[in-house]
Specification:
By secondary structure, the chain is mainly α. The chain is built from 16 helices and 5 strands. Pfam families: Strabismus.
Length: 525
């Protein structure tokens, strides 16, 4: 209540004493607004629908106001909050409905593929058993007696089917990692091959055994054994095509993030473009630092400030408007080029100075908090076992002593949107439980980590779009370029083939390394 009253009194006093000056300043600012800024604000009208953040430690507006704040901003600043309104256009509604339709189509395609594979697998495992049981059911009295060899084949069929079942479960029954836009060609070919193979065996069985009611039961069992052997060979072929073929590196790909230019190199084998894109995304979440759009706003604001200082005068009339303005702006930018690099240098130096100072304050605050924890642990050991403090309670007890320094550091480095209050408390309690040092606790905040380090629901892009001139089912080739797009940025992938390396051998004679050292003794005469 006191803070609200101070805010109202400050705001009312300010409006009483400087109302006329504010009005004049606003009118002058409106007169100096250029048509270019109006068009720019109109063209940037867009709406993005995202999930709400889970209690960010600091607001996003804090990073934009950081440049003009001193070290004691918390004690001397009064904040006025307000509300904002957003609207959704018809284009956004159409785009959302299209995304929902695409997701429904992907789910149907995925479940349809799983259903077809499950039905075909069940048919494969039941076929050898049916080959053996049907003669026993239909013409049992006419069959020849099954001898010792025939009974031994039963054991062979049973163990081979068990091996085939375990191998099929290990190779095919895996949780899918992603929904690919096209079918996996080799897997589809294997399914077609298995279907044709089982259909051929059933056709031969129906014509030569069921119609003629063959009485040689040992031959029928041997026919079922041959089917199981062939299925085992098909399973070996599936291992070669699906797993072993892609292990040998054949291509080197360069992945570049379009916004900040961060890049990584990876080696891949014979893969299709869509499977290579899946490998790129798996490595992206592990190797690339988390995407932080707040770090890009400084350069954009600096460029906008330089362009705002340029004034263009049209002296050639309305017919030469566009070319005259462009030439004038280029000339003015060239004249200001010598002074802009000095401004950039001092801005970066000042930012690095503030980061180092607030980092030092954070390190000292965390070390003092952990020292307090050790003192509390020593005191708790002297108490009864029932009075021991929980790690969560200990984290909540020492967090206020380091919260202010951590807030300022995260705001200066523009990381406040990635760390909520709850995530910091969980990490602190985890460090206390495992007896970790202050340096281990600060590692997450001093060095920006990969995307996997942060909250999955907030920072993972669930929808990626693969853009490629080649068919996504075709294999990688030298010079292929494809793009992976998400909502905020894109990954540009360039494929290069590993060159053929020719090694030659040069023989060195072992005797060439030998030498003789001759010493000549000198004697005085």
């Amino acid at each position: 209540m006191s803070a609200a009253m101070d805010t109202e009194s400050t705001y009312s006093g300010y409006s009483h004493y400087s109302g006329h000056s504010k009005k004049a300043h606003r009118q002058g600012r409106d007169r100096h607004k250029s048509p270019r800024s109006k068009d720019g604000s109109r063209s940037e009208k867009s709406v993005t629908i995202q999930t709400p953040p889970a209690e960010p430690l600091l607001g996003n507006d804090a990073s934009r106001a950081e440049e003009g704040q001193d070290d004691n901003w918390g004690e001397t600043t009064t904040a006025i909050t307000g509300t904002s309104e957003h609207s959704i256009s018809q284009e956004d509604i159409a785009r959302i409905s299209k995304d929902l339709e695409d997701s429904v189509g992907l789910d149907c395609k995925r479940y349809l593929g799983l259903t077809v594979a499950a039905v075909l697998g069940l048919l494969v495992f039941l076929t050898p058993i049916a080959f053996i049981l049907l003669p026993q059911i239909l013409w049992r009295d006419d069959l020849e007696p099954c001898g010792t060899v025939c009974e031994g084949l039963f054991i062979s069929v049973a163990f081979k089917l068990l091996i085939l079942l375990i191998g099929t479960w290990a190779l095919f029954f895996r949780q899918p990692k992603a929904d690919l836009p096209r079918v996996f060609v080799f897997r589809a070919l294997l399914l077609v091959l298995i279907f044709l193979f089982v259909f051929s065996y059933w056709l031969f069985y129906g014509v030569r055994i069921l119609d003629s009611k063959d009485t040689n039961y040992q031959g029928i069992v041997q026919y079922a054994v041959s089917l199981v052997d062939a299925l085992l060979f098909i399973h070996y072929l599936a291992i070669v095509l699906l797993e072993l073929r892609q292990l040998q590196p054949m291509f080197t790909i360069k992945v570049v993030r379009s916004t900040d230019g961060e890049s990584r190199y990876y080696s891949l084998g014979h893969l299709s473009i869509q499977r290579a894109a899946l490998v790129v995304l798996e490595n992206y979440y592990r190797d690339f630092t988390v995407y932080n759009p707040a770090l890009l706003t400084a350069s954009k604001s600096r460029a906008a400030k330089h362009m705002a200082g340029l004034k263009v005068y049209n002296v050639d009339g309305p017919g030469n408007n566009a070319s005259g303005q462009s030439r004038a702006m280029i000339a003015a930018a060239a004249r200001r080029r010598d002074s802009s690099h000095n401004e950039l240098y001092y801005e970066e130096a000042d930012h690095e100075r503030r980061v180092r100072k607030r980092r030092a304050r954070l390190v000292v605050a965390v070390e003092e908090a952990f020292t307090h924890i050790k003192r509390l642990q020593a005191e708790e050991q002297q108490k009864a076992p029932g009075e021991m403090m929980d790690p969560r309670e200990a984290a909540q007890a020492i967090f206020p002593s380091m919260a202010r320094a951590l807030q300022k550091y995260l705001r200066t480095t523009r990381q406040q949107q990635y760390h909520s209050m709850e995530s910091i408390l969980q990490h602190l309690s985890f460090c206390i439980t495992n007896n970790m040092t202050p340096k281990a606790f600060l590692e997450r905040y001093l060095n920006p980590g990969p995307t996997l380090q942060y909250d999955r629901d907030r920072w993972f892009s669930k929808q990626w779009t693969l853009v490629s001139e080649e068919a996504v089912t075709s294999g990688l080739q030298d010079g292929v370029v494809f793009v992976l797009k998400c909502l905020d940025f894109s990954l540009v992938v360039n494929v290069k083939k590993i060159p053929f390396i020719k090694l030659s051998e040069e023989f060195i004679d072992p005797k060439s390394h030998k030498f003789v050292l001759r010493l000549q003794s000198e004697t005085s005469v």
